[in-house]
Design a protein that fits this description.
alpha+beta, 36% helix, 30% strand, single chain
């Protein structure tokens, strides 16, 4: 799938497309993202062998989701897990795109 097609699907809220876009940036840092959707809620699971920086990653996810302007997505739950450390979760509110 080409990047414009991938971006279009991500803007429509397709979890696999969102995950592929995230992984384009994160895999070089040794982080794997998986995305699922349930109603108006996205769940982003970040997994790495190294310790994850919660603040930087939640900012990255929040900015990326805001830029996509996905209709009907109001909440993003970011879960980070790395080998040897505890799991963390942060819930972010997403502003609805203007009509």
């Amino acid at each position: 799938m080409t990047t414009p097609q991938l971006l279009q699907q991500a803007k429509q809220g397709h979890p696999d497309a969102i995950a592929q876009l995230m992984n384009q940036s994160l895999e070089a840092k040794g982080i794997k993202a998986a995305v699922s959707r349930q109603g108006d809620r996205l769940r982003v699971l970040l997994d790495s062998d190294n310790e994850l920086n919660q603040t930087l990653l939640t900012q990255f996810i929040h900015k990326g989701i805001q830029n996509l302007n996905i209709p009907d997505v109001n909440v993003v739950e970011v879960v980070g897990q790395s080998q040897g450390t505890s799991q963390w979760t942060q819930t972010l509110k997403v502003q609805a795109p203007p009509p």
